[in-house]
Amino acid sequence: MAGKIFINYRREDSIATAGRLADRLAETFGRDNLFMDVDNIPVGIDFDEYLKSQVAACDVVLSVIGPNWLNAKDEANQRRLDNPDDFVAIELAAALARNILVIPVLVDGTRMPKASELPDSLKPFALRNAIQVRNTNFGNDTEQLITKMREALALVRPERTEDLVMLSFNGYLVAAFLLNIGFFLTALAMFFQLSGNFAGALAAMVAAMPILMVGGRLLARDESVRKFGVVIAVGGLLAVAAILVSPQFFHVTLFESRTIQSESLLMGIYFLTTAQFFILWKKMATVTWMPKATAITMKLANSLWLSGFTFLSSMLMVSATWEILYRLTHSVVAALTLVGVQLLVVGWCYAQYRQTLAANPRPPLA
């Protein structure tokens, strides 16, 4: 069973990073095993004793340190760490006094404070081994943090929950799809550039950049991208709809091919699925009203070979891009190169998915 985790942070310094960190830790250890905010302290309770009791119930304290953590000032222009009523100082001092594992989490290159810069009750904190968490590499850095926490506490790794499996399975599939669409648009931009169609090249790159960005943030498991992701998915769906009706309305002979129209229909369906993923997000992790479907999907998602085949099959959803590029360039090499790049993307997303599952093994059989 996972230990209790206390997240210590200063709101005006690192609330955004602390929030992202809490969401990521909740996926692995469970929301009930986290204590983060002091907003719910009961009325009339001694907050000093209450915080100390909460810290005492935890096995590890994560101290999130941003650029203004050390020298943050209060209304009287006094350093907060020197104030005996400072929540951050109270929580850390309580953890240090009880010899609880304290891990400094340094945000975006923030340096570790020196003992000489800390009040007496916090001087031992300067000797704690810290870990860096960068917002630009948040996914990998938090995975390293989780690994270090497990090593230090010798925790049994938590059971693999349905929520974690389904959210990861759907998320990495959507990421692979969006990245492959983005690379297709990048290939179109290169073709237009070489053809002297600079307006077309600019348009393709402008379309590619947000799609690649959303796919990349999905790989980093950044939930903040969900609203922008909905816009991108709906935009892609409208673009596919334009392709499907183009012979009747736009007289673009490229898309008179029935094959391209059929393949584009598959692409449109996946854009619709992508939009639903971003709208529902974690609510679609489990389908409680269809237990048999959930059980089948869980079996597929947990299986090494079946999940791999599913990721490989997702290439069919972008098959229209191969024929479109071939018809534009009349180059088999260009089309095969695109296929190769998209296969690499799918393989990378699948590897990231399996890595996530490996960090959360299935519960042992009874």
Describe the structure.
This protein is of the alpha/beta class. It has two domains: 5-153, Toll/interleukin-1 receptor homology (TIR) domain (Rossmann fold), CATH 3.40.50; 162-358, no CATH class. It contains twelve helices and five strands. Helix 7 (226-249) packs antiparallel against helix 8 (258-280). The longest helix is centred in the middle third of the chain and has 33 residues, at 162-194. The chain is elongated and about 75 Å long.
Question: What's the SSE blueprint?
Answer:
Elements: E1 5-8, H1 11-29, E2 34-35, H2 47-56, E3 60-65, H3 87-97, E4 101-107, E5 131-133, H4 138-153, H5 162-194, H6 198-219, H7 226-249, H8 258-280, H9 291-302, H10 304-313, H11 319-329, H12 332-358
Parallel strand pairs: 1-2, 1-3, 3-4, 4-5
List descriptors.
alpha/beta, 366 residues, elongated, Rossmann fold, 60% helix, 2 domains
Low-confidence segments: 285-289
Structural class, please?
Answer: alpha/beta
Largest sheet: 5 strands, parallel
Mean pLDDT: 83
Residues in helices, as a percent range: 55-70%
Please list the strands of the largest sheet in the order they lie side by side. Answer: 2-1-3-4-5
Q: Measured on Cα atoms, how large is the radius of gyration?
A: 25 Å
* Residues in β-strands, percent: 5-15%
Q: What is the overall shape? A: elongated
Quantity of strands, as a count? 5
Q: Kindly report how far apart the N and C termini lie.
A: 16 Å
Give the domain tally: 2
Number of helices: 12
H/E topology pattern: EHEHEHEEHHHHHHHHH
